[in-house]
Structures are given as structure tokens and as C-alpha cells.
């Protein structure tokens, strides 16, 4: 049995943001297009992106990319 921890071999920054970070960045940058401003509600909204609909899944990236436009 392997006791080594699992590692992440591939991840995209825009798909791995924490909800709290998205809210913080949106506030700092004045990004007003988020579908929700409450942490739990926004988390629920992003989770719905796992509905099996490619269009709905890709919609979430509008917001993660939208808050990452400044250094």
C-alpha cells in the first residue's frame, strides 16, 4: 500500500480560486458581475456549474477570469 500523499499534477489558476478569494478580488477591483455576493450563495452557484452542461460550466470562468485582470 502506498502511503505517500496525493499530488496535484495539473490545475488551472482560474478554475482553482477559493470563493472567498473571488469575492475579495471582485471587491478590490470593483468587479460587479458576480451572480451572487454572499460566500455560501456564490459557492452554490459555482457548484451548479457541475450540472453536466458545458455552457453552464464555462459560464463560471467569465467570473474567475474577470477578477484576475490585474497584478
Explained architecture:
The protein has 71 residues and is an all-alpha fold. The protein has helices spanning 19-29, 39-47, 54-66. It has one domain (16-66).
Task: Summarize model confidence as the mean pLDDT.
Answer: 87
Radius of gyration: 14 Å
Number of domains: 1
Query: How much helix, percentage-wise, in residues?
Result: 40-55%
Q: What is the rounded distance between the termini?
A: 43 Å
- Using the alpha-carbon principal axes, give the shape: globular
- Tell me the major beta sheet: none
- What is the strand tally? 0
Order of helices and strands: HHH
Number of helices: 3
Q: Could you say which structural class the secondary elements and strand pairing correspond to?
A: mainly alpha
Low-pLDDT runs = none
Strand content: under 5%
Topology readout:
Elements: H1 19-29, H2 39-47, H3 54-66
Give keywords:
mainly alpha, 0% strand, 3 helices, 71 residues
In short:
The chain has 71 residues and is an all-alpha fold.
Amino acid at each position: 500500500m502506498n502511503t505517500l500523499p496525493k499530488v496535484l499534477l495539473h490545475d488551472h489558476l482560474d478554475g482553482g480560486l477559493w470563493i472567498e478569494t473571488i469575492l475579495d478580488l471582485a471587491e478590490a477591483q470593483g468587479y460587479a458581475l458576480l451572480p451572487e455576493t454572499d460566500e455560501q450563495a456564490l459557492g452554490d452557484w459555482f457548484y451548479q456549474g457541475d450540472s453536466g452542461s458545458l455552457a453552464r460550466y464555462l459560464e463560471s470562468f467569465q467570473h474567475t477570469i474577470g477578477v484576475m485582470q490585474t497584478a
